[in-house]
Amino acid sequence: MYSTKHKSVIKIIALDLEGTLIASANNPVPRPGLYQFLQWCKKNFKQVVIYTCVDEPIFRSIANKLVINEAVPSWFREIKYVEWDGMIKDLYNIDGIEPEQAIIVDDMEIFISENQKSQWIEIKTFDFPYPEDDNEFIRVANAIREKF
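^ thats the sequence. predicted structure below, dont judge the formating
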């Protein structure tokens, strides 16, 4: 289902929350395949981080509910949260790496720094009517494998 190898020096995968992993903070419906995708990320990257505009306390509450409902692995409760302000998700905000050592999976191009778009993996927005046959995580994993 998911490939397990990538070619480059990518160490970190940064994941958006709303529209990417879940529908929204107000309606945290998990995207189909979320658990398996997160496990794939954990296996293939040194670190998995959350990079979202949702405030950390709200994110932590959502993460806890997702763990309780077994929609995500238990380690997701403690995932590193990347702090940011403004409109752009700058990979320089991830401690201990250069931007070319990270990739970001996000559904909103407007949040991606123009000079870091080569590190961006676009995912289709997950929203109502929440298709059960959504296979974006498989497509994204394959795109990561092919690109990096």
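The two ends are 18 Å apart (CA to CA).
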